[in-house]
Write a structure and sequence with these properties.
heterodimer; A: 127 residues; seven-stranded mixed β-sheet; four-stranded antiparallel β-sheet; 0% helix; globular; B: 110 residues; mainly beta; six-stranded mixed β-sheet
């Protein structure tokens, strides 16, 4: 099974841009059927899906964050990345990357689960 | 406020069977598959149940998932101390056009 590891800036100043990278090992990021997601969790709180990217570069973001999010993929390095602009204290959280299985069935139904996840990295937004 | 509603806490004694509910609507659970994640404190979430009732390889058969209408449930039988964790349900939401998580249920083994 693939393994994922987050890396990037751990401390970001308010109004600046958060940048994180997820390195995939044990398998190619171009393997069929996988999407690559970012999910975050404020300390002591619940999970929030940020968005996903395919190795083709096709993306889909959480509408609540869409205006501030960009994602990219680097197939040569087996990595995908997240940028979140204009951060505030509310963006302080554990950020996870995860492999996703996403598909459609029936008329218009969706199956979408995350497995595996990276260990997570804490990003703190300072004023 | 999540669109998937879970009880904040649940508890049981070793050996017992506990269930955790997840209530949604026609735009999420009623139309799309449900997944469950287990998060042991200090670690990343782990997929426990996918596609309503399927267990990934390595997940004990003590864990089972079910769905009816716009609600889903996770059942844990033969409760063990290592089952103490936070449990999250999740599904696609067609109205919000994205994946949504429940707020999580903290399971305590007494």
């Amino acid at each position: 099974q693939v393994q994922l590891q987050e890396s990037g800036s751990r401390l970001v100043k308010a109004s600046q841009t958060l940048s994180l990278t997820c390195t995939v090992s044990g398998g190619s990021i171009t393997r069929g059927g996988y999407s690559w997601s970012w999910i975050r969790q404020p300390l002591g709180k619940g999970l929030e899906w940020i968005g996903y990217i395919y190795d083709s570069g096709s993306t889909h973001f959480n509408p609540s964050l869409k205006s501030r999010v960009t994602m990219s993929v680097d197939r040569s390095k087996n990595q995908f990345s997240l940028k979140l602009t204009s951060v505030t204290a509310a963006d302080t959280a554990l950020y996870y990357c995860a492999a996703g299985v996403l598909g459609h069935y029936g008329d218009n139904s969706v199956y979408f689960w995350f497995d595996p996840w990276g260990p997570g990295t804490l990003v703190t937004v300072s004023s | 406020q999540s669109v998937l509603t879970q009880p904040p806490s649940a508890s049981g004694t070793p050996g017992q069977r506990v269930t955790i509910s997840c209530s949604g609507s026609s735009s999420n659970i009623g139309s799309h598959t449900v997944n469950w994640y287990q998060q042991v404190p200090g670690t990343a979430p782990k997929l426990l149940i996918y596609a309503d009732n399927q267990r990934p390889s390595g997940v004990p058969d003590r864990f089972s998932g079910s769905k009816s209408g716009t609600s889903a449930s996770l059942a844990i039988s033969g409760l063990q101390s290592e089952d103490e964790a936070d449990y999250y349900c999740a599904a696609w939401d067609g109205t919000l056009n994205g994946n949504v998580f429940g707020a999580g249920t903290t399971l305590t083994v007494l």
